[in-house]
Each structure stands twice: as C-alpha cells, then as structure tokens.
Design goal:
The chain is α/β, with parallel strands linked by helices. The protein has 39 helices and 25 strands. A 6-stranded mixed beta sheet has the order 3-2-1-4-5-6. Strands 7-10-9-8-13-14 form a 6-stranded mixed beta sheet, sandwiched between helices. Belongs to the DNA polymerase type-A family.
DNA sequence: GCCCTCACG
DNA sequence: GACGTACGTGAGGGCT
C-alpha cells in the first residue's frame, strides 16, 4: 500500500488532451501580441485549469490531482491493429506548437503533469484510478470521454467538465445500455469510427447492448452466436468474431501501465504565485494574469509583495474598487465631470431606470466613466418612504440631496449631443431611447455589445456580465442584490442611493474598460468595416422604429379572441367525446398517452424524455385515418393564434402611445439577422387563412396607409452570386420563375404547363440547399422515401455542380479559420466545426447557411441605415423589419412616392460595396392594414 | 427552468 | 436500424 495515499484520500485525474482540444475549438484563434505565437488553446486551457483550481469542489475536494496527456500517437494498440486511430486527422497546424506549452502551464499551476511514451492518457488514468481504489481511496476522472466510462464504479466516478455533471454507473448505463463492467463488450461490438475500432459491421450501441444483456457477456455471446435468431446478425457475429475480439483489446484500458512515481507524489499543492504569474505574463494573458494576481494576492498575503502590485500585465488598469465611485449630488461636482469629459473626448454612460421596458421606464440616475476606475453616479429620481401597503402607506417622495432630473439632463445634453464627444455604452439602444424620450438624441456612439458581436458572433453572447467576466475577469454585482426578484421586487428608484452608486457606477466603469479592450482589436481582426457600417449605425435607426411603434386594433383582436375561445370549447368537447374521457388537450403528454396508449394508434415515436411525440407532422399522418388527431390539429392552431397573438398582443399596447412597440436585438442572432422581442413582430401569422386575419389588426392611422416592401428570393439570389452558378444567375437575370427553372433542369420537363407538384419539389430542394441539405431532411419535408429524396439531391448537384463546390469550400474555410464571412465581411464564428460525431453535422450546415442568411441580413441592414435620409422629405416612417421585408406608415397621398424611394434604396443596398451578378428585386404593396399591404 | 410545440423568414 | 439531421429566431403552456 502506497504510503500516504489511503482511506479518505480522493484523487482527481484530469484528461489533459480533452481540455486542449476543447479549448482550441471553443476559442477564436488568438496569437501572442509580441511575436504572433498561436496561444488560443493555451489560453483556454489555462482558463479551464484556473476555473478548476478556484472551484471549491465541496465534499469531493481532491487531496491528490494530476493532469494526464497523450505522449505520442503510436502506442501498443498499433501493434494489435495497425489501423487503430489511422483515420485521425493531424492536429491543426496552429495547435501543434501549443502542446508543449500546455504541459508548461500545468506545471506552472503546480499540478502533477504526466505522460508516458507508448501509452495513451486513458491507460494512465485507468492505472491510477485502479491504484487509488486498491489503496482504499477514491478517484474522479475529469473528462467526458466515453472510452473512460468503463472505469466508473466502486469509488471511481467521472465529472463532465463542460456540463458540470457527475457521471456514475447510472449515467453510464444510460449511455451504453449496460453497466460499466460490460461497457468494453458493447464498444467491442459497436466499434468506433473516430478511433477506427472496427467492431461488428452493422451493429451499433443499441443492438450491442441488447445482445450483451441477452447473453451476459461478450465471450458467451460469441460462443453461442449460432443461437441468434436474426440470420443477418448471427452471420455477422460468426464471420467477424476475431475482429470483435481484437476490437475488445483495443477499447479495453490497461490498468497495468508501468509508473515511475507514487500516488503520494500527486498530492495537491498550492500554486506558487511567482511561477504561475511568470508563466501567464510570458504568454501575455492580461486578463487571466490580473485575475490570478487578484485572487492570490487577496488570499495569500504572504506573497502579495510579488504578484498583485507587480503584475506587469496591466500596470495602467486599476483594480475594481466600488468604494472609489463618486455620488454626484450638486451642480459644481457635475460640472467638474462634464469638464473632465470634454477633456478626454469620450465618456462611458449608463442610465438607471424604473424598469426594463425602455418605452415605459423613467430614468432615475445616470452613471459616467471617463477612465478605468474613474466613475460616478448622478441620482435624480430616487424615492424614499415606505411604499408599504394598507391605509397608512406614505406616498413615496423624492429622496433628499439629489439634483433634479431637469438640472442633470440640461447640464448633460450639450455633451451627449456634442459631435466631438464619443458616448460609449453597452447596449446603447436602450439608453438612447430612454434619453430620446427626454429630448436628447445622443451622438456619436460606441457600443461594446456590438463590438463584441462584430468580433465574436457565434462564440458567446454579448451581455455585459458575460463580457466583463470573460474579458476583464470581473464579476459584476447582480442587480438582484439591489432590487430583489419575483413578487417582492422593487424598482431602481427605491434603492437607497448609497447602495445604488457602487452598482451603477460599476456598469459605466466596466463599459469603459470593455471599450478600451475591444477598440484596438477591431482593425487587427478586420471587423471595423462591419462594425462601422452594419452595427453602429443601426442603433438610432432601430430606436426610431421602435419608438414609432405600430397601431393595433385591440377591438379586432378581442373579437377574434372570443370567437377562438368558442371554437376551442367546441373542439374540446368533440375531442373528449372521441377520446372517451376528459383530458387537457394542451398537454402533449396526456395527448400522447390517449393516442398511443389508450387508443393504441400506430406510429408513436418516443423522444429522449420517453414522451410520445405529438408534433404536427405526427398528427397529420394519424389524421388520415382518425378524427381525433385532426381535431387536435385544429384546436392547436386556434389555441396558438389565441394565446400567442390575439390575447397577448392586446397586452402589449402601450397606454401612452396606443401602439405596440417591439424591441429588436441587434446582437441576438448569430448570422446578423435582427430578432424581435416583447412582442415578437417577426412571426405574425401569414401562412394560414385564419392566421392572416390577425394581420388585419395591424392598421394605419387615419389618413395613412401601411406599405410593405420585401425582397424577392434574396437568399437564392445571394447563393447564385456567391456560389457563381451560371444557370441560376441567368434565370434571375431573365426574371423567370426560379423554382420552375430548377424543376425543368432537374426533371427535364418544360417550364410551360409544369405540374405544380414538380415545382413544389424543386422549391423544397432550393430551400434545402440553403440550409445544408440532407436526404433525410428533404424526405421528411416532402414526405417521400429517403432514397428518392437522395436521388433528387444527387441530380441537383449534377445539374448545378457549383453548389457542391461552394459548400465544400465554405466548410473548409470554417475548419481552417474557425469562422465564415459574408460578402460584406461579417464574421460568424463556427465553434464545433472540427468536432466529430453528430454535432459536427449541425455545425457544418450552420456554416453553409451562415454566409447566405448573413449576407441577406447585411443587405437589409444597409437599406435600413440609408432609409431615413431617403424618405426624409416624405410624410412617412419606417416601422418594422421582418428579415426580408420593411413595413412603413405613410400618408395616403405619398404612397407611390414612398414605394419608389424605398424600393430604390432596397434594390441598390448591396452597392457600392458589392456589385451583385444578379438583380435584387423588391415587391411592394399598400393598404389599410398589414394583411392588405403584404 | 426545461421541454414541447408552433408562429415567422 | 450505430447516432441524428435542413438554417435562423421568440413565445406560450405544461410539468417538475
């Protein structure tokens, strides 16, 4: 028994290679500033190690720990089977030099760093976990690698570091269908395409688990293979018995790896501040260095002399110190801040308000920051006095010792509108609208959220808390600590000013620091043009659209709601009658049990939660021969229309304006599209007749008309251009029906007198191509056999070979660069594109789609940005955007002028940046309501 | 808070 | 019958 490691000891085994690849693919390529050395994976690796080291781990805290790496690709398994891992691609060029650095990093963290020639990390992990168990201790393997799951059980478990999920015998059983002790048997049968373990052809995990459960173990199964009922399966096992046995030796981990160290030597040690900071500084990881110095300085005063103050990474970045923020309560101090702003030429600004709805909330204070650590809060709307309940509640009155709103805004207005002073904000559209409602139109603007979006779309979200943590290593004060949550939530106006200042001023401070962080990166990463031409100018344009809102006829909606309620009640009665019992039609779970359980209908598909799917396409199939599912479909449609639209929309009418004001997220969608929220006005029904009537409730003011202009087939046109497909381009130039043309090319039929069914199929394929088509997807969409769908796709690629070339190139770009770009330079990161397994398919399709969807989004953004100037002299306002459609409200007499002006802007929106080789065509309509205009 | 379902381009 | 699959969104209701 190894001395010192025994009962009560707990060993953590970190799968180093998994950490590296995860880090590499999760992060954009990053290089060391001074010499261009690629260090992205090292940075991610260090962040993960730091996160791991700082974690408390609770009761599972390790007494011993090690990071284990693969040493080289050739191991004893290649002697058993020379093709083992033969189809593993070489690691990317920019990852290779980072491997030794991750070893250095591990040592810098003072964690044992282990690799042994000729052995895979998995075998070392197996050996160490066996030893830990035998010594009477326990072990946790930090990895999500399924190959390690065979080790689970009896004192050994796994922790998925990404999901933070503990993997025990139950989870293993869920994955493999057998307990950990039989995992190798299942793997031997199923094989593994990633590691090139052959297994038995045609047998996957499901079948393998079933066989093992039936026969007990692999040896018994192979010995009694002749008894298997299914002839094909029996023959496979008999024919491939040797191959299966070899596979088992490949997947079975070796617990007897010779080790030249003891468990005791893996004892957990605190990192040495100097060593660790030295390494991080050398790598030039500013953020992490600061973060580590912070922590080690605070917790280990003995070593503060070295790191915290001398951390060279950020000499000019003061620590966050909420005590240093100033509360501005008099006009002299405010004037001093204004003078400081005029001095620096820029200011970070954040408004505090009474709520989240920027069309209803009132401002209660403004924060400013002029330099990191130099920030203030100017309260003017805080109240005091118990809001309380009952008769004796005092009406809240303004808290003392505040400037008035008028004083503050009058003093700031000249600065906020001064064209020589840059206003920096995080999600500035919000603050812009709050101030615009007080008569201040801020300009010019810098928005850190949009900078992050231009740099990092696809990698992570762009909220302030996320950015602060990621790029400044700083955790923001959660707003909940001030205003609470749920029923007892108060507004920011009720927060005592002395509590408000640290929170509020911190937001401005963080914003300023983020701006300093992002601004120099923009030209280096070549995203300045996108930010300047497609992101930043959207803020005032969208703010004006949102403030304009659209008139909604509440009476019309109310009448529809009533009619829907009646119809639903009637359908419910019929459904209960047909089911023979009452149940909640709106519960998919109950419905599934009725249809597939009680009534025993065929075709019940169970998802991963074990519930039957009752989605529309399932019900449609059932509806062919049963009444009940048909009624449910009707009920569902009406229920959706009522709850999501006719009911909910009435609640979104703003009492002050009598109109509905949506909010557009500029940085929400990965591709550059906008997203509309609260309410979502980008998914108002149109496809069904019933639904289209909801659009009649969106109306023009008296004397006005609604005008809708939309791009015709914009994504297909972009595809024709970027993939350079002569046949498609010519068809668009000639203005012929594109789907009919496709059908004609594919099925060799004339366009004249074409069967509508044929055209419909061609249309589905055209759309499918944009989405990264698969035979499965097309077959489901068209409800045709999969082989037939695959034939269509093959024919399509034969007729239009350029499309295949485009797809391949796009995926190749994504794999090499970690991102794809649109025609206008928008960058969409593609994390996960280099993964293997089913997840890779999705990433592939997303990468193919992104440049097309993204370019369309860029084009309409360009049009929207130019629109205000183009329609300035017309009595018209732009109200809504629905991806390829713009909706305006215009005086009746100016409808034609508006259509002409807006169409010209939209059709020419790509120019002069891009001269498309196909024309952009815009269709237009006008009417009293949206249904008529569209 | 997650899942299912469904509205749109 | 190894797996799961068209791309991008937001919202409401059920259920735990």
């Amino acid at each position: 028994m190894s001395e010192g490691f025994g009962k009560g000891c707990h060993l953590h085994l970190i799968d180093g290679s998994a950490f590296i690849f995860r880090a590499y693919h999760a992060l954009p390529p990053l290089t060391r500033k001074s010499d261009g050395l690629p260090v992205g994976a090292v940075a991610g690796f260090c962040n993960m190690l730091w996160k791991y080291v700082s974690d408390e781990h609770g009761s599972a805290a390790p007494t011993h720990a090690a990071v284990i790496f693969d040493h080289s690709s050739k191991t004893f398994r290649n002697e058993i089977y020379d093709l083992y891992k033969a189809n593993r691609p070489e690691p990317p060029e920019d990852l290779r030099p980072q491997f030794p650095l991750t070893r250095d990093a591990t040592r810098a963290f003072n964690i044992a760093c282990i690799e042994i020639e000729g052995y895979e990390a998995d075998d070392i992990i197996a050996t160490l976990s066996c030893q830990a168990r035998e010594a009477g201790g326990s072990a946790t393997i930090i990895s999500s690698d399924k190959d390690l799951m065979q080790l689970v059980g009896d004192g050994v478990d796994m922790l998925d570091p990404i999901k933070g999920k503990l993997i025990g015998p139950e989870e293993v059983r869920e994955k493999f269908g057998v307990g950990p002790d039989r995992v190798v048997d299942v793997q031997a049968l199923a094989g593994d395409s990633v590691d090139n373990v052959p297994g038995a052809p045609g047998i996957g995990i499901k079948t393998a688990a079933q066989l093992i459960n039936d026969y007990g173990d692999l040896d018994t199964l192979l010995a009694r293979a002749a008894e298997i009922k299914q002839p094909k399966r029996r023959q496979t096992l008999i024919d491939h018995a040797d191959q299966i046995r070899i596979s088992k030796r490949l997947v079975e981990l070796d617990c007897k790896t010779p080790l030249d160290f003891t468990l005791q030597s893996l004892e957990v040690r605190d990192p040495d501040a100097e060593t660790l900071l030295g390494f991080l500084t050398e790598m030039e990881f500013r953020t992490l260095t600061t973060r580590v110095a912070d922590r080690l300085g605070a917790e280990a005063p003995a070593v503060t002399a070295a790191p915290a103050s001398e951390a060279p990474a950020a000499p000019d970045q003061p620590q966050f110190d909420s005590a240093s923020y100033q509360t501005v309560r008099d006009i002299e101090t405010l004037d001093q801040w204004i003078a400081a702003i005029r001095e620096t030429g820029h200011v970070a600004i954040d408004t505090e308000t009474t709520g989240l709805d920027d069309m209803r909330a009132d401002p209660v204070g403004i924060c400013l920051a002029t330099a990191p650590g130099t920030a203030c809060y100017i309260p003017f709307g805080h109240v005091e006095g118990e809001a309380g309940d009952g008769l004796f509640a005092t009406a809240p009155s303004l808290a003392p010792d505040q400037l008035t709103q008028d004083q503050v805004l009058s003093a700031l207005k000249p600065v906020l509108e001064d064209p020589s002073i840059l206003k920096i904000g995080q999600n500035l559209k919000y603050d812009w609208k709050i101030l615009a409602r007080q008569g201040i139109r801020m300009a010019p603007l810098a928005d850190t959220m949009l900078m992050s979006y231009a740099l990092n779309a696809g990698t992570h979200n762009h909220g302030m808390d996320e950015l602060a943590e990621r790029y400044l290593g700083h955790k923001c004060i959660p707003i909940k600590e001030l205003i609470g949550s749920g029923k007892s939530q108060i507004t920011f106006a009720q927060v005592p000013i002395d509590k408000a200042t640290p929170y509020a001023a911190e937001d401005a401070d963080v914003t300023l620091r983020l701006w300093q962080h992002f601004a120099p990166m923009m030209p280096v990463e070549k995203v300045s043009t996108v930010y300047e031409t497609l992101e930043r100018p959207m803020v005032p344009v969208l703010a004006d659209m949102e403030m304009a809102g659209i008139r909604v006829d509440g009476g019309h909606l109310g009448r529809m709601s009533n009619a829907f309620a009646q119809k639903m009640a009637q359908l419910e009665d019929e459904i209960h009658e047909l089911a023979g019992e009452k149940f909640n039609v709106g519960s998919p779970k109950q419905l599934g049990e009725i249809l597939f359980g009680k009534l025993g209908m065929e075709g019940g598909k169970q998802g991963k939660t074990g519930a039957y799917s009752t989605s529309a396409d399932v019900l449609e199939d059932l509806a062919v021969s049963h009444d009940l599912p048909a009624r449910v479909l009707d009920w569902r449609q009406i229920s959706k229309l009522k709850s999501t639209y006719t009911d909910a929309l009435q609640g979104h009418v703003n009492p002050d304006t009598g109109r509905v004001h949506t909010s557009y997220s500029i940085a929400g969608a990965q591709t550059g599209r906008l997203a509309s929220t609260e309410p979502n006005l980008q998914n108002i029904p149109v496809r069904s007749e019933e639904g289209r009537r909801i659009r009649e409730a969106f109306v023009a003011t008296e004397g006005y008309r609604l005008v809708s202009l939309d791009y015709s087939q914009i994504e297909l046109r972009i595809l024709a251009h970027v993939a350079d497909i002569p046949a498609l381009k010519q068809a668009f130039r000639d203005g012929i029906d594109i789907h009919a043309m496709t059908a004609s090319q594919m099925f060799n039929v004339p366009v004249e007198g074409m069967d509508p069914m044929i055209r419909r199929q061609a249309k589905a394929i055209n759309f499918g191509v944009i989405y990264g088509i698969s035979g499965f997807g097309l077959s489901r969409n068209l409800r045709i056999p999969r082989a037939e769908a695959q034939d269509f796709i093959n024919t399509y690629f034969e007729r239009f070979p350029e499309i295949r070339a485009y797809m391949d190139k796009t995926v190749e770009d994504a794999k090499r660069d970690g991102f794809v770009t649109t025609l206008f330079g928008r960058r969409i990161n593609t994390p996960g594109i280099n993964q293997s397994g089913p997840a890779a398919g999705g990433a592939r399709r997303a990468a193919i789609n992104a440049p097309i969807q993204g370019a369309a989004a860029d084009i309409i953004r360009r049009a929207m940005i130019r629109m205000p100037a183009a329609i300035r002299d017309l009595p018209a306002r732009m109200l809504l955007q629905v991806h390829d459609e713009l909706v305006f409200e215009v005086e009746e007499s100016a409808v034609d002028d508006l259509i002409a002006a807006a169409r010209q802007v939209m059709e020419g929106a790509a120019e002069p940046a891009i001269k498309l080789s196909v024309p952009l065509i815009v269709d237009a309509g006008a009417g009293m309501n949206w249904a008529e205009a569209h």
